[in-house]
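lol so apparently i was supposed to do this last week
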Amino acid sequence: MKTSRFFINTLRESPNDAEIVSHKLMIKAGLVRKNASGIYSWLPLGLKILRKVENIVRKEMESCGAQELLMPGIIPSELWIESKRWEEYGPELLRIKDRHSRAFCLGPTHEEVITSLVRNEVTSYKQLPINFFQIQTKFRDEIRPRFGIMRAREFLMKDAYSFHANQESLDATYLEMFKAYSNIFEKLHLEFRAVIADTGNIGGTGSHEFHVLADSGEDFIASNDNGSYAANLEMVNLDQKLREINESKEPHQLIETPNIKSIKEVAEFFNTTIQNCIKTLLVTDGKNFYCICVRGDHEINFVKLKRLLAVEKELKMASEKDVLKIMGCPIGSVGPMTKKCSLYVDNDAFNCINFICGANQDGFHLQNANWNKKQIDKIADIRNAIDGDPSPDGSGVLKIKKGIEVGHIFKLGVKYSNSMKAFVTDSDGSSIPMVMGCYGIGISRIVAAAIEQNHDEKGIIWPLPLAPFLCAVVPIKRKSSPIVDKYAEKIYKQLTEMNVEVIFCDQNKRPGVLFSDLDLIGIPLRIVVSEKNITDEKIEIKLRKNNKTIFWGINDIQSFIEKFQSGEMDS
Ligand code: ATP
Ligand code: MG
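anyway here it is w/ adenosine-5'-triphosphate bound
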């Protein structure tokens, strides 16, 4: 490909609304352009990368027997009413009407369409298991679209749905998909974790999310060093032995603590560690109030807490006003020893003795406080895991990392087949609901996640499987030097014949500008052809990844490419 025939338009400035690197770089490198909030066009350069992700995903899906189909992006409301999600889904579902006032929605996910399709096509257990996938544009009216295509409203997803006669068959396919997803992220050369995920309100028996590790990630994941355990923060089971509290308990004292508010200030005031202080927080679901205690160095995990309290609505911290009304003191002095509402204590907080806590009295704390078990409604795991917690599988300790969710696999069970009556005849003639699994990958989000993981101050550093071109051939002063022109064309031709994806910079751009563009776009190899190099019978190759310059025999480009592609040049 020659730059004169391939549209590349880089920008000097980052967009104003860009908060994260991938968003900035995707705009600056000219991969995407914004049309409206969370809605983007993919320019030819960006599309080349998107297609690479798509093809790796497609190949892997096909290699484990999934079959590609394509469903509509616009879905009639009737199907969503059948599954009851027309009411349940909320404003992320964009609802529209046609000229006859019939209601439709823009598909955010396709369980309904596939279930209705399969219930009409498949009638016998003999046709199962079957796994269909599509690579298609989804629309979700996200409350806060941000980070460019990372959290867009319109985005490209691979979604797959499998149908089974029984749970064992689903389990087998789920495992296959787990392996396929791991293969996909390995083939994309991305550092990832497969983590145990929450099954939310669908219930079901299993779910894993796949996360690309990156500091800008919105999710926290806990994993141990040897890779035997990884989970979403809310899924880390920190159940642990409660200690028998028969160590010497001191009598508690009420101590005046004027202007001491934060847990750090409290620990300093009492000359103790924050681990020996108890944080007491008042939480509400809008109806009831709950007093929650965690150790001073721990934080509440609201997903765990919500599960424990079995409440429907989201939990949030009670307002200053409510705290004053219920606890009789300001937030900084709240404590658990005088019971004002139901009391929930984290395991590790319960294991503290002779601790410091608020006294429910403005400007006072209790020293040497000890639990009165009778007052506690429940002692449970309600905190976030932190670095150094023992791994729940007994192997090593946990480290908390940030991740970007790029994939999600889920055992759906019979939720949709029951509500939408997707039944087949079983071997004994009975009619049974098909057991389902679903498997999603954010194709467009992967492009952004790959950039978050692979960039420097100059721009993108594509992992090789995603690079739009493996190399750029840059002739210096080609117009005035026929020999440069001849060699550059020759090298370009050679590379093309080797099936190497190469971009030939045939326009007369200043080398400095061109080099910084190529760095920004992230082309792995830059091959410079100049008169001096030709006299030396060399070409000059710059490696984007480690900034190394290598001089190589001008007639031996093939051996260089082979060495580079095999990873020999990495060090
Ligand atoms: P998130 O928690 O990030 O909103 P989700 O749980 O809603 O994701 P799924 O419904 O499991 O996502 O969708 C499958 C995949 O689609 C996700 O793993 C993610 O990679 C991608 N995805 C979801 N929402 C978006 C979005 N708004 N923009 C881009 N990709 C998305
Ligand atoms: Mg979402």
